[in-house]
Amino acid sequence: MRLPIILLTLSYLVFGQSSKVDYKIGKKIHGNFLGNGKKVTATAIKTKEANGNPVEDGTPAEFEIRFSDSQLKPIKVGCCETILINEGDLNNDGTDEISTYQAPMNGCTYTMTTYSFIKENWIKIVQPFLIPTGCENLTEKDLQNRVFKENKNVYFLANDMSNEKGKLIRRKAVYR
Fold it and tell me: What is the rounded CA–CA span in Å between residue 55 and residue 75?
């Protein structure tokens, strides 16, 4: 137990403030969501507890994304557990975009959606798409690579459902 504490203390002393963590994926992330260069924290919060399975007349849990800066309105993302991803500036507007990777109510097919803060509102710039996981966890790198910018266009990698192996195919995001 002492060794990890000693190593943490040494890393802090050696690296000082430059070792500050910049969270890009998780239930809490940081980003330049206002475009002013200041880091804002986004956190996935459960706003309503579940009371059973909705298929059996129950009520699912509800989640939203809340921000450390009150200029950013919360994003209601509905059911279920949510992982946040800072996508960087995808649409060249000077602000970071945020994706949600959400668990299903039942099963192993997750949903991913990407939002941008445009004219004081959160707009979906990548419409929700499904990610079948086969009940296996995706790595942070896999999640971070699902939405990306290439030649000033935004793309996402979707699973080809006509292919038995679910091969990833690149699709251009279309948003207004």
Answer: 25
Tell whether 6 is covered by a domain: no
Question: Are 154 and 176 contacting, i.e. CB atoms less than 8 angstroms apart?
Answer: no
Q: Which two tokens stand for residue 173?
A: 């995001």
> Is 32 part of any domain?
yes
In angstroms, the CA 45 to CA 130 distance is: 22
How many domains would you assign to the chain? 1
How far is it, in rounded angstroms, from Cα 67 to Cα 79? 19
Cβ-based neighbours of 156, under 8 Å, separated by 6 or more:
112, 114, 126, 129, 146, 147, 148, 170, 171, 173
Domain that holds residue 29: 20-172
Indicate whether 103 belongs to any domain: yes
Q: In angstroms, what CA-CA distances link 93 with 2, 16, 31, 45, 116? A: 47, 32, 14, 27, 9
pLDDT digits (tens, 9 = 90+) for 139-155: 999 999 999 999 989 99
**What is the tens place of the pLDDT at every residue in 70-115?**
999 999 998 888 999 999 999 999 999 999 999 887 788 999 999 9
- 10: in domain: no
